[in-house]
Amino acid sequence: MGCGRNFRSIVHSLCTRGSHTGDHRHSGGSGSMSAPGLRLYIQDHHVVMDNGIVQVTLSKPDGIVTGIRYNGIDNLLETLNNESNRGYWDVVWNANDGGRAGIFEVIKATNFRVIKQDEEQVELSFARPWDPSFQGKLVPLNIDKRFVLLRGSSGFYTYAIYEHVGSPEWPAFSLGETRVAFKLRKDKFQYMAVADDRQRLMPLPDDRLRGRCQPLAYQEAVLLVNPVNPELRGEVDDKYQYSCDNKDNKVHGWISMNPPVGFWQITPSDEFRSGGPVKQNLTSHVGPTTLAVFLGSHYAGDELTPKFGQGEPWKKVFGPIFIYLNSVRRVEDALTLWGDAKRQMLVEVQSWPYSFPESKDFLSADQRGNVSGRLLVSDKYACNDLMPASGAYVGLAAQGDAGSWQKECKGYQFWSRASEDGCFSINNVLPGDYDLYAWVPGFIGDYQNEVSITIASGCRIDVGEIVYKPPRDGPTLWEIGIPDRSAAEFYIPDPNPKYLNKIFVNHPERFRQYGLWERYSELYPNGDLVYTVGESDYSKDWFFAQVTSINRRFQ
What we know:
This protein is mainly β. It has helices at residues 5-8, 336-350, 516-523, 538-541; strands at residues 39-42, 46-50, 54-59, 65-70, 87-94, 103-106, 111-117, 121-128, 142-150, 155-164, 173-183, 189-195, 198-201, 213-215, 221-224, 236-238, 244-245, 251-257, 260-266, 280-281, 284-285, 289-296, 307-308, 314-327, 369-377, 387-388, 393-397, 414-417, 423-429, 432-439, 447-448, 453-455, 460-468.
């Protein structure tokens, strides 16, 4: 069920009987010079930012987003929720180094300040300093949450500065996750879009309650047995089906049909995310919920949980991200809001790094550096000449071993794709010491430059031609699949028809269907698969995931 006619045929069931008039024009993006001025209202327990397009209300001094008013809707956030459960920053942490399991904490600030207020910008700070009296109770971090509203902007920005101070009274801890979450109104936002081919009318949160669903193998997955919308009966809902690689996770969100309004979370840079470009993270899911995940061990485990020693100094800026709001006049045009959100995402990406954040910890373009060069591949068994590393992923990350960037989760990472001739340019890199890493689709192994690179403000470094030699002991005798860090070429079975998500039927990412691990034992009930080199076809005979079965062996 995508964004085509199937949805259009039921769109009116989500709307009132009245019709919307007007043209196909989107409301959103940057305003004109005649845009209304900014207003800031400071109340006893709330702060309100208003630019005449969007009005954002935050609790004071907690810094929780309690209300977003836009396009005639008094509050886009779920008013049935407690104010502290609408729009917030959170962490999952552990007082020891125990990995993923830990304490879930919504970050509630204690100090409120107006950082900037003029005709062009309002920036607010909601800070929560830590001291030893909080040990074991609050995550041992100084956290400064920032919220920014610009004149003429159809949305607002948020970012945060986390700091673990380098002094003995600051205890050791692990940080399993940190993110921003927004909980939208379930009576309005029922259509979700994560990608061009992953968008659909979603179940309601009520559909996940007892009596309307059947629990499956893990708590996030349920089978809809009596959903409010009977057309969804028999489908699986699972938030992990909407995960996304960091490199592709730029914009996602929700559409309301009455009135036609879009709510989008735009992440213009991956530099503050952990795990590199192919690390997966959650996006949006039933709630309706929209997430910006900066750090998380999903799909990776404890190795991607940063562990900080006692008195270990650390500081990092997460964001800014942009919450973009758009609208159209006619409900028939509601699904075009996704295309408009993608265009706005490109505007935000091209504007990175932003010039407006007031924190000295967020560095502007002229305070950053650039690295360029050309990556070639030397493999005499493939070609006698050096080959351009076409489409290679080339990045800068913390110093380590080849491939260590996949587990790096404390610092920043900067990645680019090489052109057809192997040329690459990594721009807007924060000052510091890095190693240069790469991998090349079609070749096994990881490249690491022999010499580390030091970035200084304003520097432009050309590393020239560098050569990757894939590991090998001789000519290739046989090969199963394509060494491109994807399993897309292998055999992906059809799911059990009892556990379908219709959006993934005949879909390039059909591996996300629920329960495919059980299909392996059904396909090979008497033992594990046997693959015969030279006879078998990996697109038909090699199961895409190495799951356990009867004798837990592959041949």
